[in-house]
Specification:
The complex is a heterodimer of chains A (396) and B (571).
Chain A: H1 13-19, H2 24-38, H3 48-61, E1 66-71, H4 77-83, H5 90-97, E2 99-103, H6 111-122, E3 126-131, E4 134-135, E5 144-145, E6 148-149, H7 150-158, E7 161-167, H8 169-173, H9 175-178, E8 186-187, E9 198-201, H10 208-221, H11 234-237, H12 241-244, H13 248-252, H14 263-266, H15 285-288, H16 312-315, H17 331-350, H18 354-366, H19 387-395
Parallel strand pairs in A: 1-2, 1-3, 3-7, 7-9
Antiparallel strand pairs in A: 4-8, 5-6
Helix pairs in contact in A: 2-3, 3-10, 4-10
Chain B: E1 4-8, E2 18-25, E3 28-36, H1 42-46, H2 54-59, H3 66-81, H4 87-113, H5 120-123, H6 128-138, H7 146-161, H8 181-201, H9 203-209, H10 236-265, E4 281-283, E5 303-305, E6 314-315, E7 321-324, E8 372-375, E9 381-382, H11 384-393, H12 397-410, H13 420-450, E10 470-479, E11 482-491, E12 494-501, H14 503-508, H15 519-525, H16 539-546, H17 552-555
Parallel strand pairs in B: 4-9
Antiparallel strand pairs in B: 1-2, 2-3, 4-5, 5-6, 7-8, 10-11, 11-12
The chains are: A alpha/beta (396), B alpha+beta (571).
């Protein structure tokens, strides 16, 4: 990982804050919030105050990095999500923390001037953020920008990137357009950029704060946050939704909504029987919640779809079918989900070093699921048909 | 002067991927091609799946129009299985889709469109105190202080010093920019305020549907339960929050967005006759007046204004819709000249363009991933100006009153609404009416809750065993960008066919077999008068294209069905 100091000469973040009249106290309050957020996964240990101060020190010294934010084959939902970031508001992020030198949704120029902005930004060290998948079928004709295929655009932008962050499920593994039968041959960023690690911020879309906190982490530490086995920052994806769900107590007590809007639903009981994928989903929804902590799907009465898990469209559907093979309430789901939890945490502990994370990511690439081969395979059956065969082919 | 060929790709500040190719001579556009350069195939992916899941896939057609796709999808399924939903659920859907439209219009104006009219660099030379005085003449908005304007100026100046980011390489100083520095500074400040506003206002979506973007919906109603006395439901605290959010939304629209649009419009009156596009307008009942799904009856009925007759509303007949692929990369076995009604249509991608990287698409017969829908053979504009013009023609009192006042101020007739400025203005006008309407819907919801009617879900048709073996359904909605429809065919509890016909497909389509241009193309090249002073800095083109609020991911996903029969129900 190249050092962030290469990024951009000029003022540090601390200088900017001073000039903006932000007091030390206000800044520390901000860092405290970020620390609470980053500390969600409990991966750092130590006191929050100490962490906030450390974060403050690092942030103050950080330089304003050049950021290229590509949108490939996608729906724009992930940028829309980032626009909703409350902990680091996007206007502050864009005007003060980073220099967003290319992003099609927000940038002023079009056409030639936009292409020049990209060409100029990508010759220098920069942070590369990517939304969207890369359609590989038929020479990439299913998504072109400036006459170039998405793959071409991505590879050029990645060549000098200090770090690559795949934001959202499309960039991670192709998401909805990669669902069976994947008509355009869509794959994720890490399937194309193989010579360096890719941080995956999971979700369709991810919560705004997981995006902005990852950026803030970069700024503060100059390297990627610790990742789990799927390349996801542990601070956001270290725990299952089920672990912190406000309806967890009713799950443990065996109180379930049997159908939508029945008496139990009106009492806020557990949605497991309506198909909730919270027990199998690693995501910070229950902790950070959405849109400045207002709510999240389970709180609003709808089961979790499991959108932060890989291949969730094929593997988490039908959405309203219960997670299979489970005795409720009690040990069944706990036993199965915990097995997965332990596996993922074990993988992430081994993968704290970025390079080993890259190895794990590469391995997971090889394990790409057959689309819709196993609905709900995420629970119970960890082996995907065809995978063993594929891995053998790969090994041989 | 010789005719020049111009390519603008990417068109930025839109959703999705759009390329515009032009011919221009002597500072005027003489020909235009709109090229959608992305295809994802979501309808194909929906085949074989549980219809109750469809909304979650269909919603991912677009990250901007998430909720409306979900609702259109759910209505199509509910229509197919004959499931009526509780009145409170309908009111909640009205509120969330109304909020989506408001948020969309405001963000479109400030973040996707305003930089076409507002010179950010000029704002740096404004006098903050004079800006505050200017702002006070158009609005009582309390944030319009010299202090705030000064802060904004400093922040932008600081950003400029560090490289400027998103504002870099803008067409600043282009002679087409005409606002005085103070008006520019006011608009830049409101650009930042609107960013803050939108992330608060969408919390209405979060409360009712769990998150934004991509909120969660439910076939048969809404998943949110109402129980005034529980922490995890729509309770008294939530109702108070919702009321406040709606009040704030209305205030921002009334005191910031609408006055800004009117103030900026005053500097660009010629754009009321630039960007005039296809003279047939279609709407199925405005979101401001009805969100009731299938073409609305009251108070503004579904209809069309045809061939430039903007006084006479004509009835809408879905049978008159046909889609063509003569300019799009799809294959019809019936041949390229054949138009197919959605129930007979198909979407088999068949790319025949040049291998990327390529320089030119317009020299090919096919040049886009967007099909060309036509109504009775006519290219059709959908969207805010179609809705407002139709409401005006039907004599909708609020629309007539506000439009007459504002058109009088601009010294223009109703036909001016079919223009670059008209489309931009109609979004603001519609927002004023819609924000007020949301307060009425919310009051109606509160009234129901008070009377004890808290049902939000109809469980009778939840199990696929209760469905007919075969069923067809359609869901209509006026989304922010115009008429949206989803069509579903169900066999044995699974989706056998799925199709969407969406606003940006109507507007961004290419030529049909008769050589008629789609509305974007028509707006740029229809009268050969559209200005383009400097092809390297095509700010005039961006004004007109952005006035449609392009949503290209929505536009290019068409499919398929070949079914029979079409029944439109008016609720």
């Amino acid at each position: 990982m190249k050092d962030l100091q290469q990024w951009r000469d000029g003022d540090s973040f601390g200088d900017l804050l001073k000039r903006r009249g932000v007091t030390r106290r206000e800044f520390l309050t901000f860092c405290g919030k970020m620390a609470a957020l980053i500390g969600v996964g409990g991966v750092f240990g130590g006191s929050k105050t100490a962490f906030a101060q450390e974060l403050a020190g690092r942030l103050e010294a950080a330089r304003r990095p050049s950021v290229v934010y590509l949108q490939l084959q996608e729906c724009t939902g992930c940028v829309e999500s980032l626009l909703r970031s409350a902990s680091t508001p996007v206007e502050e992020l864009v005007l003060e923390q980073i220099s967003l030198d290319y992003n099609e949704l927000l940038m002023a120029p079009s056409g030639e001037a936009a292409e020049q902005a990209l060409a100029s930004a990508q010759t220098k060290p920069h942070l590369l953020l990517v939304n969207g998948s890369v359609p590989l079928k038929d020479g990439g004709v299913y998504c072109t920008i400036g006459g170039r295929s998405a793959r071409d655009v991505l590879e050029r932008a990645a060549a000098n990137a200090t770090a690559v962050v795949a934001i959202g499920a499309c960039a991670e593994y192709g998401c909805v357009q990669a669902a069976s039968p994947n008509p355009t041959g869509a794959v994720g960023v890490a399937d194309v950029i193989r010579d360096r690690p890719v941080v995956n911020i999971s979700g369709c879309p991810p919560i705004a704060e997981t995006i902005s906190a990852t950026l803030t982490y970069f700024l503060a530490y100059g390297h990627t946050p610790p990742l789990d086995g799927l390349g996801r920052p542990l601070f956001a994806y270290g725990q299952r939704i089920h672990d912190k769900c406000p309806r967890r107590a009713s799950f443990d007590a065996g109180q379930f909504a049997e159908r939508f809007d029945d008496q139990n639903a009106r009492l806020g009981h557990c949605l497991y029987k309506l198909g909730c994928k919270g027990p199998a989903t690693f995501a910070p929804c229950a902790t950070i919640e959405w849109n400045d902590g207002v709510s999240f799907p389970i709180k609003a009465g709808h089961p979790c779809l499991g959108c932060t898990e890989r291949h969730f469209y094929d593997r988490m559907t039908p959405f309203y079918r219960r997670l299979p093979g489970i005795t409720v309430p009690g040990l069944g789901v706990e036993a199965t989900a915990n097995t997965i939890g332990v596996a993922a945490v074990a993988a992430s502990v081994a993968a704290v070093a970025v390079h080993s994370a890259a190895t794990v990511i590469a391995k997971h690439r090889a394990r790409r699921a057959e689309p819709e081969s196993l609905p709900l395979a995420v629970l119970g059956d960890r082996e995907e048909p065809g995978v063993k065969q594929k891995e053998k082919e790969k090994d041989s | 002067m010789a005719t020049e060929r111009i390519v603008i790709d990417p068109i930025t500040r839109i959703e999705g991927h759009l390329r515009i190719e032009l011919e221009a001579a002597d500072g005027r556009i003489s020909n235009a091609w709109a090229c959608a350069t992305q295809f994802r195939g979501i309808e194909k992916i929906l085949e074989g799946r549980d219809p109750r899941d469809a909304w979650a896939f269909a919603q991912r057609i677009c990250g901007v129009c998430t909720g409306v796709h979900a609702i259109a999808s759910i209505r199509a399924v509910e229509d197919a299985i004959k499931c009526r939903i509780p009145e409170s659920a309908e009111l909640i859907r009205n509120l969330v889709s109304g909020m989506a439209t408001l948020q969309d219009h405001v963000m479109h104006f400030y973040h996707l469109h305003a930089l076409d009219w507002v010179d950010v660099m000029s704002a740096l030379s404004a006098d903050p105190a004079a800006t505050s005085r200017l702002a006070a003449t158009i609005s009582p908005w309390p944030n319009n202080s010299a202090t705030w304007f000064k802060e904004v100026q400093q922040r932008v100046a600081t950003s400029a010093k560090g490289g400027l980011g998103i504002f870099a390489s803008g067409y600043w100083g282009h002679p087409a920019y005409r606002l005085p520095p103070e008006a520019n500074l006011m608009a830049v400040a409101h650009y930042l305020e609107a960013l803050k506003w939108q992330r608060e206002i969408i919390q209405l979506h979060t409360i009712f549907a769990g998150k934004n973007p991509h909120p969660n919906y439910l076939v048969g109603g809404m998943a949110t339960s109402i129980n005034l006395d529980n922490q995890l439901t729509i309770n008294k605290v939530r109702l108070d929050q919702l009321g406040e959010l709606i009040r704030e939304a209305r205030r921002f629209v009334d005191e910031v967005y609408y006055p800004d649009v009117m103030a900026i419009a005053g500097f660009y009156p010629e754009y009321a006759s630039i960007g005039v596009s296809s003279p047939t307008m279609m709407a199925v009942g405005e979101s401001a007046f009805s969100c009731s799904g299938t073409p609305a009856g009251k108070p503004v009925a579904a209809g069309l204004l045809m061939d430039g007759d903007y006084r006479t509303p004509r009835p809408f007949n879905p049978r008159m819709v046909a889609e063509f692929v003569s300019s799009a990369w799809y294959l019809y076995p019936e041949g390229d000249r054949q138009g197919l009604h959605p129930w007979q249509g198909r979407t088999d991608p068949n790319y025949t363009g040049p291998k990327p990287p390529y320089r030119q698409l317009s020299d090919q017969e096919k040049y886009t991933w967007c099909k060309a829908p036509r109504y009775d053979g006519r290219p059709v504009q959908v969207g805010p100006n179609a809705r407002i013009m139709l409401a005006y023609a039907q004599g909708h009192p609020e629309t007539v009153q506000l439009a007459n006042r504002d058109l009088g101020q601009l010294k223009a007739g109703v036909e001016a609404l079919n223009s670059t400025l008209g489309r931009t203005y109609c979004r603001a006008l519609e927002s004023v009416i819609l924000a007020k309407r949301m307060e009425e819907w919310f009051a109606a919801l509160n009234e129901r809750v008070r009377s004890g009617d808290v049902s939000t879900f109809n469980a009778d048709f939840w199990e696929p065993e209760s469905w007919p073996k075969q069923a067809q359904g359609m869901g209509y909605l006026e989304a922010a960008r115009g008429t949206l429809s989803h069509w579903v065919e169900i066999e044995n509890g699974r989706i056998s066919r799925y199709q969407c016909v969406v606003p940006s497909t109507w507007n961004s389509s290419g030529r049909d077999p008769n050589g008629l241009m789609g509305p974007y193309e028509q707006a740029l090249a229809g009268d050969k008068k559209h200005p383009l002073v400097d092809p390297k800095r095509p700010v005039e083109v961006l004004r007109t294209i952005h006035s449609f609020d392009p949503c290209l991911s929505c536009a290019v996903h068409m499919l398929l069905p070949d079914g029979s029969g079409l029944e439109v129900k008016v609720r």
